[in-house]
Amino acid sequence: MNNSKLSKQMFALPYAILAVVFVIIPLVIMMFTAFVDGNGSFTFDNFLNFGNADVWKVLGRSFIMAFLTTVICLVLAYPTAMILANSRLNKSATIVMLFVLPMWINSLLRIYAVKLIFEDMLGRGFGLVLLGMVYDFFPFMLMPLYTILANMDHSYIEAAEDLGASPLKNFLTVILPLSVPGIISGVLMVFMPTVSTFAVSDILGNPDTYMFGNLINYNMEKGYYNLGSAYSIVMLALIGITTLIANRITAVRGGKK
Amino acid sequence: MAKVKVGDWDKIIELKDVCKSYDGKMVVKNLSLAIKRGAFVTLLGPSGCGKTTTLRMIAGFEEADSGTIFLEKQDVTEIPPHKRPINTVFQKYALFPHLNVYGNIAYGLKLKRIEETDPNAPAGKQVKTRKFTRAEIAEKVQRALKLVGLEGYEQRDVTSLSGGQQQRVAIARALVLQPKVLLLDEPLGALDLKMRKEMQLELMEMHKKLGITFVYVTHDQEEALTMSDYIVVMKDGVVQQIGSPKAIYDEPANAFVADFIGESNIISGTMIEDYKVRFLDTDFKCLDKNFNKNEEVDVVIRPEDIKITDVEKGMLEGKVVSQVFKGTFYEMNVLAGDYEFTVQSTESRDVGEEVGISVKPNGIHIMKKMLVANEFVTEMDSDESIDINGVSFNVFNNGNFRQGDKVKASVSLDDIILTDYEEEGIVGGNIVQTVYKGSYFQVQVAADNNCDFWLDSDDEWDIGDRVGIQIKPESFVLEKITEEEAANE
Fold first, then answer.
1. How far is Cα B217 from Cα B235, in angstroms, rounded to an integer?
2. Hey, is the C-beta of A155 within 8 angstroms of any chain B C-beta?
């Protein structure tokens, strides 16, 4: 009994080592660099840059872009997932496969494809970046929604029908509330990467679509590690808060109400 | 030829010639069924017999491939479930996990629109529909909870309730809408025995109190016998028998029903004459008549109708093979001849002991054999025909048979055609009896050549009708037999 418990824990060891080397240690280093200056002495100066209105503008732009991407993905993915979850149309899940297939191609390649096809039509800028983001992250929204809708116990839907709910009422009062956990995980899986991405706006954007991710990237590339680390920590904190709020909502819905 | 007469009782639900198949497999075959207003009706049968599918068609979750479903004489075949005044208690309750007990029970009430007449409003606008007010909903929910014995549970999370409590919420949720019909799909299946017994009694109580028609689906024959006003026994999508629990237990329509309802001993026997049947080389008195002389029958004897006696006092001799104490009686297997009887006895016997078996005439139930084909042992009276009791029937000969060959000819029950005019048939005859088999009639015709034909017919025929019998040459299946075999048959 004790032995088997021990050996089960052993399986987690490789990942634990990986996590320590590539996540924990870098985080500690980042924390450290964020609070020192070029000479290695302790300072808050790196964070004082947030006094600059432009930094807030870039940060705000990132959040707006991530928010729009998430909303558009959700609006497109939900009906798609509902159609796919209908087993009569999607007997062997092949159609789902087709929707997820783009994920097999490198993200950068896909963004370049978007650039080649749409750059002449739309021109570089906010619209093209948004299009690229939605295209890039759509499968991450689709998958959790599809999973939750396909696995939803059909008897809930039948019970609502039985109790007099029209198809619309059924959707609003049963299907939608029961799919909230899928919506939350889809939103997180799209929102978190989009808020910090820089590659998409690099390739498809113009100076007006400069994102917070680009700002961090710029500082790191130029060797301003202290400033870059400070920005990263702020970003990390913001993502952390968003996740916590999302989890709180899931817990409330999943529990009762 | 007579048309099927429709009963006069107040039918709340009627199914007519309903068929349903999944992936090419027929699960409900030509089902016709009427349900009386206010009754507690149970659809009973083994899994896969089509009982749940029938219930789901009444609820509207499944669409019938063909046939019509009437609710209070209105055709509801195409009406979606949310527009039918019928509610369902689901097998696994299907309580909404995102709503608490109050939210679940109030769900249907919040959607419902009620009609209200306002005599002061201008003509034509007197009838208005409105939703229930908050206070009305709260009051109805409270009454429903009281009905199922869960007062004070309004704010409880449904996932925190026990199976029995969840079941009660599911019942309250359906009953609060005051449906015309309540459908219950094996609702007690997930409960333990004690809880199940309790819920059975409570459901019967609710049925009596509310006067709502209950349609109950179960595979548990004991549950069906306890609770129902009448039972519909189904097998392979076909109704086997409809009757009160007592009628179905005491007078099962066929060996399947006898076997399914309670434990039964089913033995092959021969009807010697009226009130006398022979099985296991012994003659027994019975209460059945109107069989043909020496007709092969199924004899059904309930385990509790068999009395174990001393060897010399018994009608049959047997040997106890095994014995199990069941709390209030002993259940033993007794081997008599080549048949092993299941017997319930209040007295214990030793395994291996020689005992006598006796059965009173009212413990013996005689049932028609379920026929598959008519068989005639005869000879070819020409190369192209056979002789059946002096009447020549044309057969299709593929060259294997010669005039004078002894043959066994069989013809399926579906392949005999009755005509209204006897001169249209190869031979004339009288209808002797018809047995309703749920979707068709099994008809026995006594032909003028002193021989009986059995056939399946979609039409009902009156006893005593003169008819003609037609059999197509290709419907006969011939098999060559030897002289001795012919003599033995």
1. 13
2. yes
